[in-house]
Amino acid sequence: MSGAARAQRLFIGGSWVEPDGGYYEVTDPATETVVGLAPEASREQVHAAAAAAREAFGPWSRTRPEERAAVLAKAADLIRRHLVPYAELAQAETGATTGTARGMQVGIGAARFQRYARVEPTEEPIAPQINEAGPFGRAAVMGALAIRQPVGVVTCITSYNNPWANPAGKIAPALAMGNTVVVKPAPQDPLSVYRMAEALEAAGVPPGVVNVVSGSGVEAGEAAVDSADVDMVSFTGSTAVGRRIAEVCGRGMKRQLMELGGKGAAIVFDDADLTSAVAAIGTTFSFYSGQICTAPTRVIAQRGVYDELVTQLAEYARRLPVGDPRERGTVVGPVISSAHRDRVESYVELGRKEGARLVTGGERPPLDHGFYVTPTLLADCTPDMRVVREEIFGPVVVALPFDDEDEAVTLANATDYGLIDYVWSGDVSRAFRVARRLRTGGVGVNTVGRNMEAPFGGFKKSGVGRDVGSYALHAYSEVQAIVWPG
Predict the structure, then answer these.
(1) 18 is known as an active-site residue
(2) pTM: predicted TM-score of the whole model, two decimal places
């Protein structure tokens, strides 16, 4: 354990509280050493956090939007001031490379607080309606106003692949709309979320508006979902867990925002820029070591370029340096845990047994410690293979060929998931035509880049609802109608 490591306390009702369940170790996936001790919240403590959020909701929801925005802006500034130590902690918890930890984790976390530190309209006038005389009264011109109101207490359950951007993307818009939150971070990397809570506390968030509770098992998360004080659950994680959360939310009629699994298709037509396609698809190997739901993990390539694309993608994967994420030249760091490494490796072996051709990877890197997986490419796959249908969540890409546009769309849509797909083609008209036929929440045309004001969310088993940009403000609000005679 490093000298900076410490036993972390829970954050409940504005106080730092000793956990009822003691502590558990947070492990650095690159070094297998202990980063720090995270608190085990009891069910009663999680419910106490929700009760604190309920008590704080009334005053916070009545706070002027400008005041809430000022708190978020100050939090963003404080996070930026501590970017380096925050990024070092995030790197230790997740195994992210230095550039990813600073830019994509802490940097985007700060940017999301800054994004919601501006006041947007919450009232929308509705066109007047002329009502004739009838059972409900005399003839009248009826005015109407649609007003966005906060939902109430929101439980935010976050993913392990980004302990800054993902929680910030939930907490910031929820607070901006006047909600209060109970944050349940992923068990693998909760310490970064407690640093975020410290920044919010220093920025002036009133007691009870933000609460953070953690645990290594399912108890804390279940309590954060089933508490009677919770009005909404915002969850990022697996579809299997999302389904269980949805069942509880359904019984309590709680609002849901769910960003779940993905199995992104990268359709590459024979007129595509292969260099661009290879570099983009290659982000599956490098970005979070493939632990990202938006990754283009299924390559569906037209036969005219299929062999060349597979060759170039394999060469690209072999050139990527795998190792210590703290080293300047490292591109591919570890996956989050030993158990997850075993899971990813089992999928690679399953693919071989199913008949896929192992083009590159498949072996464990010769490193003394750390949970590393070599970037792996499985080619000549068929749609029925589990490695094609199921989310692997690691640096593994599968490839299969297609002949014409209709077949490409059929193959891309042949999955339970529908988060983000991608299309590469020199014919922009065709690319957009194909994009509209894909059953997925987003489509990248000749890019894996994101527009951070565009709605984000999935079709099918990839989720419920949309967030990012102004869509997140909609997600964390209810619409109230006020009607009056003109």
Answers:
(1) no
(2) 0.95
